[in-house]
Every structure is written in structure tokens, then in C-alpha cells.
Amino acid sequence: MLLSDKDIKDYIKKHRIKITPKPDFKTQLGSCSIDLRLSNIFKVFEQNRTPYIDVRQNLSNYCITRDVKIKKDEPFIMHPGIFVLAQTVESIELPDDIVARLEGRSSLGRLGIVVHSTAALFDAGFKGKPTLELGNLGKLPVGLYQNMRICALTFEQLSSKAEVPYYKKRSAKYLGKEAFSESKIGEEKQYARKI
After folding, report:
1. How far apart are CA 154 and CA 186, in angstroms?
2. Catalytic-residue membership of 133
3. Span 72-97, pLDDT tens digits
């Protein structure tokens, strides 16, 4: 069951759902979602340094991205066909019986901007800053700005508490990260060998 605006507010006030810094309900709360804002750091892929990405390798050994930091009121230009990683200003912390879904904002979608490729679900027990998989599917470049509302989170109540919430998973590669990272898919192979 999706949480309503009333329930989202109540859960945040009672610290069942933690969002830091605390959102401005007047501008960020929708009827069944809460908007999150764009941070000022982007991970841009360096296609001239790596011939291809081998998903069987530990990608932390490669320089596949570089950080680009924008200043206040400076746009980050999303050219058509570009794909970058970014993150939200806000950190979230979910209890063991609530999941969150990352949704795009229709105002940006109508310009061709998508905020996730596949990583839309945040498991019960997730703690950290949501990573955005930004792409421009449109025909024109679009300027994005620090602190703009970039995405929305919806929340769903699980039928019971998760037996193994995200923070207890051995495979929780992105838990509690304030600084976001590239894909850690290469760690899956190493993890599988330990079983």
C-alpha cells in the first residue's frame, strides 16, 4: 500500500522514515510522494580512458568516471544521449517494513530527462543518499541546477518486517554511502565465490 501525503508527513515527524536535511513539506511533498533535490556533484564517464567495461572485473581498479562539481547557479548541461551518475542532497533511512521507489518528475521527463535506468527500488532498511542514473533521451541539451527538485520518492508498507533488511545483507554494496560510487557489479563474482 502506497503511503499518502498525510502518512509520509507523519512517518517523517515520528522518525520512522528519516530524511536529512528535513524536507520542506510546502514545496517537496506531493499527494503520495516527496521530492528530493539534486546535489552538485556528477560522475561523468571517461570513455577515452577505458576501451570497454568488463563487468567481471572490480571496477574500482579503473578510472571509468571523473567527478564534476558545479557551483551555485551554474548549470550542468545534459546533452542528448549522455549518461551520468548523480545523487540527491538528502539522505534517507528506511525502517525494516517500508520500501521506497524513486520516480522521475514529469516536468523533467517532458524534456527527455530520466532519473533512473533500473535502480528505482530502495529496500527496507536502506540507509544513504539515493544515486541517480541521469540520462537525456531528448533532442536538445538541458541544464540542471544544484538544489532543484530532481526526483520523487514514494513509500510502500510491507506486509511484515523484512527478515533480512538491506543493512543486514552480506551483499549490501551501497549501504550508508554519503559519497556515491560507480557500479560494484564486479564484487558480485567475488561474493559468489565465498558461498
Report:
1. 30
2. yes
3. 999 999 999 999 999 999 999 999 99
- Strand bridging mode 142-144 / 113-114: unpaired
Second-level CATH architecture of 5-51+58-168: Distorted Sandwich (2.70)
List the chain domain ranges: 5-51+58-168
Low-confidence ranges of the chain (pLDDT < 50): 184-185, 191-195
Q: Backbone dihedral region of 125: left (phi > 0), alpha (psi from -120 to 50 degrees) or beta?
A: left
186 Cβ neighbours under 8 A, 6+ residues apart: 55, 56, 57, 58, 59, 60
Active-site entry in 133, 182, 187, 188: 133
pLDDT of residue 50: 72
Closest-CA residue to 58 (of 138, 137, 136, 173): 173
C-alpha cell at 139: 533532442
Return the pLDDT at 165: 81
